[in-house]
Amino acid sequence: MVKGANVGLTALSENVGSVVVGLGWSSATGEGDADVSVLLLDGDGKVRSDDDFCFYNNPVAGNGSVQLLGKTPTADGSEDRISFDLDAVPQEIDTVVVAASRYGGSRFGELDDLRLTLADGAGDGLVRFAVEEADEVSAVIFGELYRRSGEWKFRAVGQGYASGLAGLATDYGVDIDDDAAEEEAEGLAGEAPSAEAEPQPAAAPEARVPAHATADRADDAAPAAPAPDPVTPPKPARRPRTAKKKVTLPRTVRKSLADNESWRSARLFPVSALKSDRERETRATSVVLSVMAQVPEFGRRLTAGFGAPAGRMETYTEVTLPHGESPRRPDGVIRVERAGKLWTALVETKTNGNALKPDQVQAYMDIAARRGYEAVITLSNDVALEGSPLVDVRIDGRRKHKVALWHLSWAEVVHQAQMLIRHEGVGNAAHAWLLQELLHYLQHENSGCHGFQNMGAAWVPVRRGIDDETLCQGDARALEVIENWERLVRQVCLRLGGELGQKVLPVQRTRRGSDPRTRRTELADHLCEQGRLNAEIRIEGTPGVLAITADLRTGKLRTSIEIPSAEPGYPLSRVKRLIRRLAEAPADLHIETLVDGPSPGPRGTLERLRPEPADIVPRGGAQITGFRLSLFKGMGNGRGAAETGFIRSVDEAVDRFHAQVVAQVEAPARRSRSEEPAG
Fold first, then answer.
1. What is the pLDDT of residues 128-168, one digit of tens each?
2. What angle, 0 to 180 degrees and rounded to 10, lies between the N-to-C axes of helices 646-657 and 476-500?
3. According to DSSP H, which parts of 539-621 are helical?
4. Of 155, 176, 179, whose CA–CA distance to 166 is shortest?
5. Strand order across the 404-409 sheet
6. Per-residue pLDDT at 655
7. CB burial of residue 625 (10 Å; 0-12, 13-18, 19+)
8. Interval 362-392: pLDDT, tens
């Protein structure tokens, strides 16, 4: 679509009761991000209350009809997804505005490929809109969903706000938390024009409907948002406040009343009796589905991205469905009812690293198509990759009813439970306790729900081929290792993000529009040539990208981060400040000074530099641009997640580096979202 165009959703698909909107962007450095927000507007173009403002501190709005699903990696970077149950949007709401904003003085011109996509309930893409000319703004309205004559339409807006999220939200009637004004104003302090500068009229937000919209769209035009006087300096930006406080579990554990450590707390979901894979699958399915039905926030979090409506959920296990002469028994069924309409998904579960069986999944897809079900959901330890499906199924194009095939990893289920009970909160204490019991069960060693746990059959042959230099480019086993490495990195991001309550995503430095399979083939060739696996992850609030390198030739894991050094002062003073910030870091931390020019800077270990910080001051007047901090450890040999396995060693290396290094150099001015004022 082009800017200003609009289209009726029913003209694009029959399955638009629920849609998923994605907002995406990329950057050459892999850094840079934005926050997604949604505003629900009444006929006057205003929110009815602050509850109609959906953002990171209030991820659900409109009685559950709008939900922020978080970020997912894509071939071009990452994408924020938002689920809309259009049938459940309150009748008083005429327009839904989809926007994104940047913080700390950043602008959208620093990001590439700003885009919006819209998919129907089956996951089929319907709309793509590229946003242009957003260089100097810190907030952008990507598009609007709006009602006309009982039908939902979409308009491509692409309009920028120089006044940022606070200005956008205020214009639509959202109250702003005054307690956070000073902090937000500091982030914009560098943007204010000097007293001698000529006043610029660009500070005012533009109208929500583009001026060049054609006359034949006039009947679809929404009322323009009020614009402040263009010559009036913008007020200091203030952070939107949280709509309501929710229950989260305390991080500190209360002292136990047990007589001794051998006593075990009674658990709602016991794991001691699990003896076989079949028992693990049955128990895990029942546990997860029952909590989904009892905790609406959790059930909605797991199903919103699959096109499910926001309604009453019921879940079932071990159901029997006819299928020729041999009835089938899927592990579970999820049914959601909203306004008399029923959404149904079959669930197929695997635990303990067991692979999904293509014939089973195909049978469930056929059953779902015949019975008019909307989806088949697979749930296993594996992690799905874009362009590399876990199970290939045939789709009968002659059938009018379409069935979507979705996948969940156990790591993602754990991640969503952690985010709710530790960071975002749920409706009441009983729901928080249920999620805590679920989390305890899934993380128990007997549950079999431990996420990706095996680097695959190709791991040992590839390592041997690298050792004896017999691994050739084009070897399919190298591609398998690259795919499993990507799965492991994505799982590391889910685990770390759940612990921190922050966005943690893999960085993919790829050309725009590159094919995921082609990218992985190139990485496999590099593995054959160099013998190293490389990955980068971006942690929100961290001034740099955390790099992970597994050198299969030397058996060493390297975790590192490059931090910029824009502080004023003499080179020795800047080095001393860094050493002081790393007072609690390990003595074997390697520090390298980054300098302008092709030559490398000086380096040394923290143990040696503490008494002699001048050793890493560059000679010859070279300018310091930053520092690279690195830790090294031995790499596990086994392909699994045992104590001596490769997967365990990667987890431990990332955890140690983040806790002992990254946490000490995080930008002090950027607090985590969980610490922001609640209003």
1. 999 988 788 889 999 999 999 889 999 999 988 888 888 88
2. 40
3. 571-581, 606-609
4. 176
5. 312-317, 332-338, 341-349, 375-380, 404-409
6. 95
7. middle
8. 999 999 999 999 999 999 999 988 877 888 8
* Distances, alpha carbon 144 to alpha carbons 84, 567, 655, in Å: 12, 42, 41
* Adjacency order of strands within the sheet including 112-119: 60-61, 66-74, 77-85, 18-26, 112-119, 125-130
Tokens for 272, please give them.
């001691």
What tokens does 277 get? Answer: 């894979």
DSSP 8-state assignment for residue 37: E
The secondary structure of residue 490, as a DSSP letter, is H
Q: What pLDDT does residue 183 have?
A: 40
HEC per residue, 91-126: CCCCEEEEEEECCCCCCHHHCEEEEEEEECCCCCEE
Compute how many other C-beta atoms are within 10 angstroms of the C-beta atom of residue 246: 18
Nearest to 456 by CA among 422, 411, 487: 487
**pLDDT score of 222 more than 80:** no
Cα 133 from Cα 155, distance rounded (Å): 17
**Under a CB-based contact definition with an 8 Å cutoff, are residues 147 and 643 in contact?**
no
Taking residues 406-427, report their average pLDDT. Answer: 92
Q: Residues 146-155, buried b or exposed e (16+ Cβ, 10 A)?
A: bbeeeebbbb
User: What pLDDT sits at residue 525?
Assistant: 94
Mean pLDDT, to the nearest integer, of 196-219? Answer: 35
CB 375 within 8 A of CB 306: yes
Helical (H) or strand (E) element with 45: none
Q: Are strands 6-8 and 151-161 parallel, antiparallel or unpaired?
A: antiparallel
> What secondary structure letter does DSSP report for 662?
I
CA distance linking residue 525 with residue 503, whole number of Å: 31
Rounded to the nearest integer, the mean pLDDT of the chain is 83
**In which region does residue 357 sit, left (phi positive, over 0), alpha (psi from -120 to 50) or beta (all else)?**
beta
Q: What does the pLDDT average to over 12-16?
A: 87
How far apart are the two ends of the chain, measured CA to CA in Å? 39
CB 237 within 8 A of CB 166: yes
Q: Which structure tokens are listed for 152?
A: 């939902």
The pLDDT of residue 499: 92
pLDDT computed for residue 212 by the predictor: 31
How many other C-beta atoms are found inside a 10 Å radius of the C-beta of residue 513? 8
Rounded distance between C-alpha atoms, residue 360 and residue 254, angstroms: 46
Single out the residue of 534, 588, 565, 559 nearest to residue 665, CA to CA. 565
